[in-house]
Specification:
By secondary structure, this protein is of the alpha/beta class. The chain is built from 15 helices and 15 strands. Strands 2-3-4-5-6-7-8-11 form an eight-stranded parallel barrel.
């Protein structure tokens, strides 16, 4: 698959300095970790997934999570597993008959309830497991975490060489991770499990909805998860332990649970932030006309995710796909600076002036940042100088921004 493949060739040529590269579930782990992007959750009981893919209903869809956990009732588990198997069988058949192309396929993930279900589902889907990139592991803890990765390691050790690696994507969302008196021990113990299985950990996800429920909280659409101090503090510790450059884990952001039904006049906090300077063409003052209040909050939260080293977002509505993924594109300035830093990492330079004459690039402090920028550029592309993330949005994004 190739991100933004639904755009016309002429539009891509005008928007991108470097287009995103193609990738699929056999691609290198670091590409897939960044490539998860905006992961659209769907109940595994949904029978229309194949039709949606054939009709390209969700343009730009990069990752889909077929959910066997919270999205379905406890009495629907067997039905959900059966529907999941049927869905994957139909997709495989459509591929074989040429009714679907690999370009139309997103990365597929399955969210399971427990290790027993993980083992059962792998056995049930049999040969169609080749379509799967990984399994979302909810309410991750040490005891079940060890079991999850034992199952994944056993499968990967015995799988046919032509089959892609199956990865685990743990969600940190349990009370011991949230509560201050147990958090550090819980995170250290979880990290020990993940460090032993790092080759199979695609990314680490933050379950802010479960965290919020412990205190009876729910962020409003005008706020971000970073405005809830208890959750922000917990996220800070998660980033501190798992976001270190030496560990090279990719951390994915919490779900955004609102979607648009109306629009409003844009009078948002974005306009008072660095948004105007960093996301819109320099030297031009934007006229921000109208935007859904729900997308306003989502944009601010994704920008804060990025500033905190978080890449990836769980979403529950297809109108968020392009919006989130367009925010992960790399500006030409970022790309040029990153290449300059890596090029001058030869022991002869400590600092070099940016080609854009607006900053100094310090080689050692900015080196890890530069490597991450180049991975992001590979997956999401590099924008031309006169373009910003809004250039990639269409009417479905409901974000009417004029420059």
């Amino acid at each position: 698959m190739k991100l933004f493949h639904h755009l016309s060739l002429s539009k891509k040529e005008s928007i991108f300095y470097i287009e995103p590269e193609e990738f699929e579930n056999h691609s290198p782990k670091e590409v897939l970790a960044y490539g998860v992007g905006a992961a659209l959750y769907m109940p595994a009981t949904r029978p229309f997934v194949v039709n949606d893919l054939c009709s390209q209903k969700h343009k730009g869809l990069q990752s889909i999570v077929l959910d066997l956990e919270d999205a379905i009732g406890d009495q629907q588990v067997i039905k959900a597993e059966e529907t999941l198997c049927l869905t994957l069988t139909q997709i495989a058949r459509h591929l074989n008959e040429g009714l679907l192309s690999t370009l139309q396929l997103p990365l597929f993930f399955i969210r399971v309830r427990n290790p027993e279900q993980l083992k059962r589902v792998i056995e049930k889907i049999a040969g169609e497991v080749i379509l799967i990139t990984g399994f979302i592991l909810p309410k991750f803890n040490v005891l079940e975490g060890v079991k999850y990765f034992e199952i994944l390691r056993l499968y990967n050790k015995s799988k046919p060489i032509s089959h892609p690696t199956l990865y685990g994507l743990p969600i940190l969302e349990t009370a011991d991770v949230l509560y201050k008196e147990t958090r550090l021990d819980a995170l250290i113990n979880i990290k020990n499990v993940l460090d032993k299985n790092k080759d199979l950990v695609l990314n680490i996800r933050i379950g802010a909805t479960d965290f919020s429920s412990r205190f009876g909280l729910r962020r409003s659409p005008d706020m971000t998860i970073y405005d809830i101090s208890i959750i922000r503090d917990c996220m800070s510790d998660i980033i501190n332990l798992f976001g270190r450059a030496v560990d090279n884990y990719v951390i994915s952001g919490p779900v955004w649970e609102y979607f648009s039904s109306t629009v409003r006049v844009f009078n948002s906090q974005l306009k008072d932030s660095s948004f105007e300077e960093t996301m819109i063409n320099p030297g031009k003052r934007p006229k921000l006309q109208m935007i859904s209040r729900y997308e306003d909050g989502l944009i601010r939260e994704v920008l804060l995710d990025k500033e905190n080293g978080i890449i990836g977002k769980t979403i529950i509505h297809p109108t968020h796909i392009d919006l989130v993924q367009s925010l992960y594109t790399v500006t030409r300035e970022e790309y040029v600076d990153a290449n300059s830093i890596i090029h001058h990492n030869n022991g002869l330079h400590g600092v070099v002036r940016s080609e854009f004459r607006n900053k100094m690039n310090e080689i050692k402090p900015h080196l890890n940042w530069a490597y991450k920028i180049l991975i992001r550029a590979k997956v999401y592309g590099v924008l031309n100088d006169n373009m910003d993330f809004t250039s990639l949005l269409d009417d479905q994004a409901r974000c009417l921004i004029q420059v």
